[in-house]
Sequence to fold (209 residues):
Amino acid sequence: MLEIYFIRHGETVGNKENRFRGRHDFPLNQNGIRQAESLRDALKHVQFDAIYSSPLSRSLKTAEIIADNRSPVILEEGFTNIALGEWENKPKAWVRRTYPDLWQIWKTEPEKLSFKGMETLTEVRKRAYETLVKLINRHQKGKIAIVSHRAVLKPLFAAMLNMAEPYFWKIQVDTASYSIAEYRNDRGFTFTIINQNKHLENFFREDLG
Fold:
């Protein structure tokens, strides 16, 4: 059996200011660093064979804090965040005013959203799942962690569970939360924990929009 921990990075100013992040490289803010440290402490009993991280600094820093020099941290492009073109680093209020029709799709059926410079959620789902399969083939047993982003983890979970659209708003993944799934060759994925955040003392849930 392979046990996989799925971790969302800690808080950034982009989360706090309710901006679309995409691949804009927001670093962790001070609360995000504290969140990652709390996550490290919550998982100190777990010995990871490897921790795979999105190359964006908010994920990489989270991964390095969790690793605490006990596990190798490996960059994995397949888990980088969704590309959002012009929306990146823009306040959600600006997007709502500037692109009301697209905003409505985002709020109701984001799986159907598509615009210039955007990577669709269908594309994210495909490349994240293919990356996960690659890691499963590499690690037949033990424990690994994947540190990534909300707009990657949600489509990835949907692929693992074979969820049909719309799925995006049916799954919550908070900053510095972790989820756990087991993988067995004979029956595939079994989630045992989703969105565990009880280790966070100063918890801020961003606007879900």
Notes: The beta strands are 2-8, 50-53, 73-75, 142-148, 178-184, 188-196. The mean pLDDT is 96. The helical segments are 13-16, 30-42, 57-67, 92-98, 100-108, 121-138, 150-160. The two ends are 36 Å apart (CA to CA).
